[in-house]
Design a protein that fits this description.
The structure is a single chain. The chain folds into two domains: 74 residues, Beta Barrel (Ribosomal Protein L25, Chain P), CATH 2.40.240; 167 residues, Alpha/beta knot (3-Layer(aba) Sandwich), CATH 3.40.1280.10. The strands form two sheets. Strands 6, 7, 8, 9, 10, 11 and 12 form a seven-stranded parallel beta sheet that branches. With 256 residues, the protein is α/β, with parallel strands linked by helices.
Length: 256
């Protein structure tokens, strides 16, 4: 439960131990953010959090040239169990890829897997930049956890080591042209875990579609009559997953 009186404050992700009546030291990029962007002064407050210790109110006790010292004063929020949804996507151009990472974080993805497919154009990613994006998105959207980011891997290589109990849903545009029964998305999501696979610009190759269709833990779904961009498809599928799994009430119901 979030204390609404603290919602407008600056939030910082701090991966090290946080506990009451202790001090923490802020350096590097976060130092620049507090001093030069937010213009924070001594004795002003902010929120500091991580996925292990929860969220705390902190007061600035000292500001130095190379670091800032915070006093931890009050616990605001305990760590909550979040959804267990993994996102697999083929990197596209820089801006859409960063948008995918940002929105997947805001919508609760717990793990993000960039994958190389037959039609993947961009075959390198900047893991440091992606890590910065997920941290900034978590700070902004009041999330306590940070998605785990994995190195770029070939799609088929990842599938061969996949836990078969975790079902993967993927958008298959060709399903509209085949005389077959569509996968019943709603039946599966009485479960609390799953994965979503989004292909590259140009879609999956015929070879990949045949490969995916042979895997019993991979289910094709139809996202509608239009051809969606990769970033749009990610958001649409995650929201649909939330709706059918009953998670959207967490986003729409006011806090008591």
């Amino acid at each position: 439960m979030i204390d609404l009186s603290y919602k407008a404050k600056v939030r910082l992700y701090f991966p090290e131990k946080i506990s009451l009546k202790k001090t923490v030291t802020i350096t590097t990029k976060q130092l620049h953010y507090l001093k030069n962007v937010m213009r924070k002064k001594k004795d002003e407050t902010l929120l500091i959090f991580n996925s292990v210790d929860g969220e705390y109110l902190a007061k600035i006790s000292q500001i130095y040239k190379k670091y800032i010292v915070l006093n931890i004063e009050k616990k605001i929020r305990e760590v909550e169990t979040e959804i267990d949804l993994w996102i697999l996507f083929a990197p596209v151009k820089k801006v859409p890829t960063e948008y995918i990472i940002q929105k997947a974080t805001e919508l609760g993805a717990s793990k993000i897997f960039p994958v190389i497919t037959d039609r993947t154009i961009k075959k390198q990613i900047n893991l440091k930049r992606i890590q910065d994006i997920v941290i900034e998105a978590s700070e902004q959207c009041e999330r306590l956890t940070i998605p785990e980011i994995f190195n770029l891997r070939k799609l088929k290589e990842l599938m061969e080591s996949w836990d078969k109990k975790r079902i993967i849903l993927y958008g298959d545009e060709s399903i509209r042209n085949r005389n077959e029964i569509k996968f019943d998305f709603q039946n599966i999501y009485s479960k609390s875990s799953g994965a979503i696979l989004i292909g590259p610009e140009g879609g999956f190759s015929n070879d990949e579609i045949n490969y995916l269709r042979k895997k019993p833990f991979i289910k094709s779904i139809d996202l509608g009559p239009r051809i969606l961009r990769s970033d749009t498809a990610v958001i649409s599928t995650i929201v649909l997953w939330h709706c059918l799994n009953g998670d959207m009430k967490k986003y729409t119901q006011p806090n008591n």
